[in-house]
Amino acid sequence: MKFSTDGLVIREQNIKEQDKVITILTRSNGIITAFIHGAKSIKSPKSAASGLLTYSRFVIYKNREHYIIDEGNAQEVFMPLRRDIEKLTLAQYFCELLSELAPEEDTAEEHLRLALNALYVLGKGNRSPTVVKSAFELRLMSMSGYMPNLICCDGCACYEHEMMYFLPEKGIIVCGDCIGNYNQHKILTGSGVTHAMRHCIYSEFKKLFAFNLTKDAQPVLEYASEEYIHSQINRKFKTLEFYRSIKS
Q1: Domain 79-247 bears CATH identifier 1.20.1440.120
Q2: How many other CB atoms sit within 10 Å of the CB of residue 244?
């Protein structure tokens, strides 16, 4: 079976002298792993198309056991990310998170859209990388079946409170009047960060990255989103650890 699709290369591995195995987040088939023969030849268009963080149009052949790239043409290589080590490392973390959460062997239209927009905004540089990171994390988690309930306080159903807390293990918010009834790990997000988290989850997609947060509040948002991922997935991401070391 042969089919055409576009996709983002989120992992690459060299094998033999000229061949590669790549993992692609495709629009039509979700996460797939494919072989590319002759991918390391500079004369082959498949070489440019198969690089990490490259968005390409592929013609793919599938046999009983494997996907094989028959043709590949690069559409976008996100060059601004490759000139900044911090942004490049953050983009690689996005890829690792996608490999964990995006669907396999199923359509992934929204996951690919989120990935491409996050990389574009990150590369453009008009939004804080911390804000882009948190928005990407929370929206990806929500799209992948891990949407927290941030509509109102879990205890009294109030929407606004200066002392609002986020409980990452349960994925809920609790106000200062009710927090004494909850023994789980809690993060004081207040009204500003709580609104930002709501925006990341519930906003229209085209407005996802269009919000501002003070520099003092950004680390709180980042901590809350990371803690939520850790509590729900319970695994470490090597690229995230490296990003932290670069950032510090």
Answers
A1: yes
A2: 12
